[in-house]
Amino acid sequence: MSPVRRQTIRSVATVSGIGLHLGQAVTLRFEPAAPGTGVSFLRGDRAGAAPIPAHASVAVLADRRTQLGEGDDAFHTVEHVLAAVAALQIDDLRIVLDAAEPPIVDGSALPFVEALRAAGISEHGGAARYLTVTTPIRMVDGESVYEATPAAHLELDVAIEFAHPLIGVQKVALTITPDSFSRELAAARTFGFVREVEALRAAGLIQGASTSNAVVMDETSLVEATLRWPDEFVRHKALDCVGDLALAGARVRGHISAHRPSHKGTVLFVRELLRTAKEETTVMSIEEIMKVLPHRYPFLLVDRILELEEGKRVVGLKNVTINEPFFQGHFPGHPIMPGVLIVEAMAQVGGMLMLGSVVDPESKVVYFTSLDNVKFRRPVKPGDQLRLELDVQQIRGPLCKMHGVARVDGEVVCEADMAAMVRPR
């Protein structure tokens, strides 16, 4: 059983320029980091400086930027760098700076994506950490509204509203993968308005801003700029969300909706995710499941194993889609997953627990011998994600008794007591 491995880079990469808010010349250096050390920032120009982790616990609720740490040791405007790191699924990385703020370059995350890809991304020791949304979450911070629901991947749905003729209401929805981020979000640039410049500079911000590293607008039009997409504004806000979600310190799984997000609001939302979501690792992928279970499409009803504690507990996932063949004939026009197949999915997850502890599982098969106290609590429909939890009640020789619970969005949809035994094929 091999979990999804952590990733770092193979060689050092550098990016140079000036910082957006502090306006200081800076060189950023990406360096490989040891397995399990996570992503951290370090001042390379200060002897004995301690690294600061890219984590919500040390984030400061700052305006117009994401800040880690306070005072002279703080790192400012780290969101574009972290967006590239998180989207490329890099788990362990040291980011060394000779000033307090990364270079803004062209105002997007693309230069960092290109530098990291050029350095080479590779797997190394340890399992990747995941923060998985298991129950719905909603949070409001001023005008910013965030909602999260369970999903198999990081799905981002972002909306913004600005009273400007080039923006208005814009929305973007995207499943975040290394390729989709690189293609659809990475090149989207930060933006601002001429009317804000004087006040922001008086507050010590945007000291390094110009029309070469930001999309600037007057009251009606662009100033010395051409948009890369008509909705580049909301794409950049989605980019910022990816970077701020990286402060979870793990790969996030869930459908995240953000209406009028801000850096401060997203940091607060990440803290709420850390409080309520579940950290897990993928113990077995579908390829590894197929090496153990004899079932195949359309009767293989397990997509992923999240937890596997030998002789005690197993947790698996089943993503229910409208493409399931049983929906063609089971309540057509009102698709509902057959209850017996929910029980079968639980049984297959339980089979993974039993076969995972035997020698040469390919030569064995699990037969279920009894089923008791089956209860169906609510229908399961296309788009639901079944979380299947099996806990061992008793083991006696080849016979194992388990209690199974199936949940959707944290709500129990089915439960049952079952017994099974391992037999030679």
Strand-helix topology:
Blueprint: E1 5-9, E2 13-18, E3 25-32, E4 39-43, E5 52-53, E6 59-60, E7 67-68, H1 79-87, E8 93-97, H2 110-119, E9 121-127, E10 130-132, E11 137-141, E12 144-149, E13 154-162, E14 168-175, H3 178-184, E15 191-193, H4 194-202, E16 215-217, E17 222-223, H5 232-245, E18 251-259, H6 263-276, E19 278-280, H7 286-292, E20 304-309, E21 313-319, H8 339-355, E22 364-376, E23 385-396, E24 399-408, E25 411-424
Parallel strand pairs: 4-8, 10-18, 13-18, 15-16
Antiparallel strand pairs: 1-9, 2-3, 3-8, 4-5, 6-7, 10-19, 11-12, 12-18, 13-14, 16-17, 20-21, 21-23, 22-25, 23-24, 24-25
Task: Summarize the structure in words.
There is one protein chain. The two termini are 21 Å apart. The chain has eight helices and 25 strands. A hairpin with a 5-residue loop joins strand 13 and strand 14 (168-175). Helix 1 (79-87) crosses helix 2 (110-119) and helix 5 (232-245) crosses helix 6. Strands 10, 11, 12, 13, 14, 18 and 19 form a seven-stranded mixed β-sheet that branches. It is elongated and about 75 Å long. The protein has two domains: 5-280, lpxc deacetylase, domain 1; 286-424, Thiol Ester Dehydrase, Chain A (Roll), CATH 3.10.129.10. The longest helix is centred in the last third of the chain and has 17 residues, at 339-355. 40% of the residues are buried. By secondary structure, it is of the alpha+beta class.
